[in-house]
Design goal:
The strands form five sheets. Strands 3-2-1-9-10 form a five-stranded mixed β-sheet, sandwiched between helices. The protein has a five-stranded mixed β-sheet with strand order 13-12-11-17-18, with helices on both faces. The chain has a three-stranded antiparallel β-sheet with strand order 5-4-6. It has eleven helices and 18 strands. Helix 4 packs across helix 10 (311-321) and helix 5 (178-193) crosses helix 7 (240-263). The chain has three domains: 5-130 and 311-328, 2-Layer Sandwich (Nucleotidyltransferase, domain 5), CATH 3.30.420.40; 133-176 and 249-310, 2-Layer Sandwich (Nucleotidyltransferase, domain 5); 178-246, Actin, Chain A, domain 4. It is flat. The chain is α+β, with helices and mostly antiparallel strands.
Length: 343
């Protein structure tokens, strides 16, 4: 098949590109900024991310995905087109793309992803479920008839799946992720402190002192915000206890969903999972204590995979080298003519 093969982990917060034969070649923020009058793209990736909350009226920041689903077709198309051009350069043949998708997407949502891939410059495109890619990237032996539970906690969604023989035996997708935790922090600070903080500030708080349990030793950091009452700038201290309380409800929802998915598995699969444990992947799996939170609810040993943020991208790279895995899961390449006539 002419053209290079590229795997893309198009996430709500970050996009990662895996090129066959080269490995993971690029990671960037899934953000674009455009001129509100002309519609022309002003910036992409990390540069656009730093503009959040700091743009004039003439510039708008876009998030192409919301909760793992395409919400801005044009922004997503511009983002992919820019990076594909950067990776492929002036190659004669267009690349073939393999993109991950959340479990349970409708046919229309799948066609939207495929349309974006082809309109961005791909010769052909294919989809693979994110949970399966995460399991493969985490080192799960997908060939054997042995169940393993993988929980991928990304920026927009949490994908829970029981993987066996290269397919998903059970799966559930929650629209809860790292961005949800950021929103929780912002709402909590506004409700309890009457202070407004931006999305970037909330994310920084989460990364610095966020945790999924009550710490024995309290940690606090100074945070800048805007008084909801006076409209003036303020500086306040945010503590680990406050941040945990802000995120607790959604943390417990993830843990309960894991428990429910486990309970719906067959006795044989449940026995396998009890032996192998639950594997956490995704950038939000790095939140301190989240493995313990899930382990306490599910009563099954839970571990965080090595380099969890890149597990999906690695899994896509392995899938590119084993096309029989894609065939077994009903994945197939689409030409521009086929898109629109089938899911």
């Amino acid at each position: 098949m002419p053209g290079i093969n590229i795997g893309i982990d198009l996430g709500t917060s970050n996009v990662r590109f895996f090129v066959e034969g080269k490995g993971l070649v690029m990671t960037d923020n899934t953000v674009t900024a455009s001129d509100t009058h002309s519609g022309k793209t002003v910036s992409l990736g990390a540069k656009a991310y730093q503009m959040i909350g700091r743009t004039p009226d003439s510039v708008a920041v876009h998030y192409p995905l919301r909760d793992g689903i395409i919400s801005d077709f044009t922004a997503a198309q511009n983002l992919l087109r820019y990076y594909l051009q950067k990776i492929c350069g002036n190659r004669i043949f267009k690349p073939n793309l393999l993109l991950c998708m959340p479990s349970g997407l409708t046919g229309l949502e799948q066609r939207t992803l495929l349309n974006i891939a082809v309109s961005s410059g791909a010769a052909k495109a294919c989809l693979i479920e994110k949970s399966l890619a995460a399991a493969i990237g985490a080192g799960v032996d997908y060939r054997k008839p042995r169940g393993t539970m993988v929980v991928d906690i990304g920026g927009g969604t949490t994908e829970i799946a029981v993987v066996t023989m290269g397919s998903l035996a059970r799966h559930e997708s929650l629209r809860i992720g790292g961005n949800t935790f950021d929103q929780d922090i912002r709402r909590y600070v506004r409700r309890e402190r009457y202070i407004l903080i931006g999305r970037l500030t909330a994310e920084q708080i989460k990364k610095k002192i966020g945790c999924a349990y009550l710490r024995d030793a309290e940690i606090a950091i100074a945070v800048k915000g805007k008084s909801y009452l006076s409209g003036m700038p303020v500086v306040f201290e945010a503590s680990t206890t406050e941040i945990y309380l802000a995120m607790r409800e959604h943390l417990e929802q993830i843990a309960e969903a894991v428990r429910n998915t486990l309970s719906q598995s067959t006795p044989e699969l449940m026995g396998d999972i009890a032996d192998s444990g639950i594997v956490l992947t995704g950038g939000s799996a790095l939140l301190p204590g989240i493995a313990g939170c899930i382990e306490r609810r599910a009563q099954v040993r839970t571990v965080v995979a090595d380099d969890p943020a890149n597990c999906v991208a690695r899994g896509i790279g392995i899938a590119l080298e084993h096309m029989e895995l894609l065939d077994a899961n009903g994945c197939f390449y689409k030409t521009p003519q086929q898109i629109g006539t089938s899911a």
